[in-house]
Structures are given as C-alpha cells and as structure tokens.
Amino acid sequence: MMVPATAVAGGIILGMANGAIAASFDVSGQTFKVGASRLVGEGFEQYGGMAKEKNGTIHPVAVSEIADAKLYDLCQSVNASVPGLKIVLTINAGGGGKPATAKGLLIDMDSLEGDATFTNIQIGRDATDLNEHALPKSFGQSADKVVIKDLRQVARSTSAGTFTLNGLKLKVNVGEQAKECFPDPK
Would 182 be classed as within a structural domain? Predict the structure, then answer.
C-alpha cells in the first residue's frame, strides 16, 4: 500500500481532496495515530508526496484521497509528553453504529496497517492522472471503493471538506492513563 519515497523525492505535492480544498499548510513535524475498527471509502486515490514543516524540513509521505469516507470506532491520539510526564491527547468518535464521516478526505501518512479490500483497483497509474500537482511519472493507484478493517495509521496531516465526528470525546490523558490508540508499528 505504501509507495516508495524515492519515487517522489525532490518535490512538494499539494493535494487536492475531491477538488474542494488544498492541503497547502506547513505540518508540525509531529505524527499522530488514527485507528478505526473499519474505514469504508468511495473514490480512493493514493500517490507519493512530501509534507513540509515551517522550517523547511521535508517528510516523504503516502498521500491518500477519499471522496467520501466512513470511520467506525475512530480513535486519534497525539503524544504530547514532556520530560518526566506522559501526556496523550485522544479523540474518539464514530461508535455505536454511527460512524464518523468525511467528505474530501486527504491524508499525508507515514504508515498504514489493516486488512484492505479494494474494488476496481488500478495500480501503477501515473500520479499526475490522479492529481495535477503530483510529480510526473510518479507511482499512483486508485479504486472505486476501499474497505480497511482494523485500520492503524500514522499520519502527519489530515484535512477534509467536511469532517463529522458523531459522539465526539476529547480527553487529555496524563500519567498511567496516557495511552495512545495503538502501540508503535514494528
């Protein structure tokens, strides 16, 4: 699922989520975790890109665009620990059969794990056919639909035209209660 970083080295890609918004902001440099029991997406595209920090540091990423997404049992966590004190911010939503939803979802990620099923997938497309800002001749793939069970994603940024978090619960967890959505990938 991940595309080789070398295929996109040397450039910055501005992603356009469903033609509605641009992810043209500087990233913090800190990653965050997103987990879900299931993601169901219509209109999936993926290609290589770069996320840029304000200081100019560049991170190779896999860019995923999903036109219409549903995330069941969504968990997002950010490790905000300081020396001597573990702190984790968590956001939970989309439980009880009422998924979180996103239109024009755009994700810059470092890693992705789960059990994925793609419908009408096309692998090896020129990424500029998917997004005009992609590097020419870089690797891309698309599918009409994607379903990922037991989603575990480490991301640098997420943006969406609309993001609805049904049953939103935000909490700052400190000390022993400070647990992320899932352990670090191996």
Answer: no
